[in-house]
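WARN no homologs supplied; continuing
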Amino acid sequence: MKVLLVCSSGGHLAQLYRLRPWWQRHERVWVTFRDSHAESLLKGETVVHAFAPTTRNVPNALRNLRLAFSIIRAERPDVLVSDGAGVAVPFFLLARAMRVPTVYLEVYDRISRPTLTGKLCYPFTKLFIVQWPEQAVSYPRGKLIGCLI
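OK structure emitted
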C-alpha cells in the first residue's frame, strides 16, 4: 500500500510520526514544510515540501493545490492521511476529486472545539478519527481511537 502523509511541521508532524508502527510498513511520501524539525525527524524519508504559511494565504493555498494535483497524480497513493493544518485542505479536495480515500486525525490538543482544518476536511474524509470523546460531538461520523500522545 502507498500512503501519502500530509501535515504541517511541528506538533502536527509529531502526531503523524507517532503512527510510525503503522506507516513504516508501507511505501510512503510525506508532504510537509521545510524546517529543521521536519528535516531531522524525516531524514531518510521521501519528503515533498509544501508552501508555507497556509493560514489565510491565498497564493500559497493555490500553490499547494497545484502541488497536491501533481503529487497525487504522480504518486497515485492508496490513501492520504493527515492531521492538518491548513496544508491538508487542498490535498483533501483533490484526493476526493481523484477518488483517493482520505483519513483525517483531529489533533489531540483541541478537545472542546473543532479545528478549522478539521471542519474543512470533514466533508471530504472517508475516515475521520478523533482522540477524545468530546471531539465526537463536533464530528458525528468520527471514530474514537483515544489519545496518541
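The first strand starts at residue 2 and ends at 7.
OK
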